[in-house]
Amino acid sequence: MFTGTMEIPKDQVLVNVSTTNNRGFTPEEVAEQCVKKIISVSNNTHPALRDQAQAFSNHIEKVVAHYMKQAIRSDRTTVYNAIKDAGHPELAELIRRL
User: Fold this and answer.
1) Are 63 and 39 in contact (CB under 8 A)?
2) Whole-angstrom distance, CA of residue 89 vs CA of residue 61
3) Cα distances (Å, whole numbers) of residue 33 to 12, 13, 30, 37, 95
4) CA distance 81 to 88
5) pTM (2 decimals)?
C-alpha cells in the first residue's frame, strides 16, 4: 500500500473557476488565465520590481493572445480544407467565414 502526504499552502489560490455565457473564451481571456499561471509576484516584492513584473506580465499576455489567434486561424484552415476535401465546399466556405 502506498501512503503519502502533501502540504498545501494556505495563502495560495489553488483552484480558480471562470465561465462565459453562450460563448467560449476569447484568446485574450485564455491568455490572461495562462499568464496568471506562469507569472506571479509576491505582494511583499519591492514596488519597483513588482511594477516591472506587472509590465512584463502584460506584455507576455499580449504575445500569448497573438499566437493563440494565429493557432485558431491555422486550425480553421485545416478544418476548411478537410471539409472541402470531403466534398462539402459550401459548408467549408461557411467555416472559412467565421
Assistant:
1) no
2) 36
3) 16, 13, 5, 7, 27
4) 10
5) 0.76
Show pLDDT as tens, one digit a residue, over the chain (98 residues): 777 787 777 777 777 889 999 999 999 999 999 999 999 888 889 999 999 999 999 999 999 999 999 999 999 999 999 999 999 999 999 998 88
Closest CA to 75 of 33, 27, 34: 27
Residue 70 sits in which domain range? 65-98
State the CB neighbour count (10 A cutoff) for residue 88.
13
User: How far, in Å, CA of 4 to CA of 32, rounded?
Assistant: 34
Separation between Cα atoms, residue 68 and residue 82, nearest integer Å = 21
Looking at the 3D structure of the chain, how many domains does it have? 1
